[in-house]
Write a structure and sequence with these properties.
Layout: H1 3-17, H2 22-27, H3 30-48, H4 64-74
Helix pairs in contact: 1-3
C-alpha cells in the first residue's frame, strides 16, 4: 500500500468506521485516527465479551504502526488532506 492509498484508507476509517465528519477527519492526524480506531475496537470487544487483541502485528499481519510512524516522520507529523 503506497502513501496515497493509505491516506484514502485512513480517511475511510475516520469517516466510515468512526463516523467522523470529513472535516473532522481532515483536521485529525493519522495518529489520532489510529488511536480512536483502537479504542473503538477495544470498546466493541468489551461489549461483545471477546478476547482483546492489541494489534494485527501480534497475529503476524503487517506492522501498520511502523508504516504510520514513517509517514508521520516524512510529513513532519502533519498528514492532512
Amino acid at each position: 500500500m503506497d502513501e496515497e492509498q493509505f491516506l484514502v484508507h485512513i480517511f475511510g476509517v475516520a469517516t466510515g468506521w468512526l463516523g467522523w465528519t470529513p472535516d473532522a477527519a481532515w483536521q485529525s492526524t493519522v495518529t489520532e485516527i489510529t488511536i480512536a480506531l483502537e479504542a473503538k475496537i477495544d470498546f466493541i470487544q468489551m461489549q461483545n465479551g471477546t478476547k482483546k487483541t492489541a494489534s494485527k502485528t501480534k497475529k503476524g499481519g503487517p506492522d501498520m504502526g511502523a508504516f504510520i510512524a514513517e509517514i508521520i516522520k516524512d510529513n513532519g507529523n502533519q498528514v492532512h488532506g
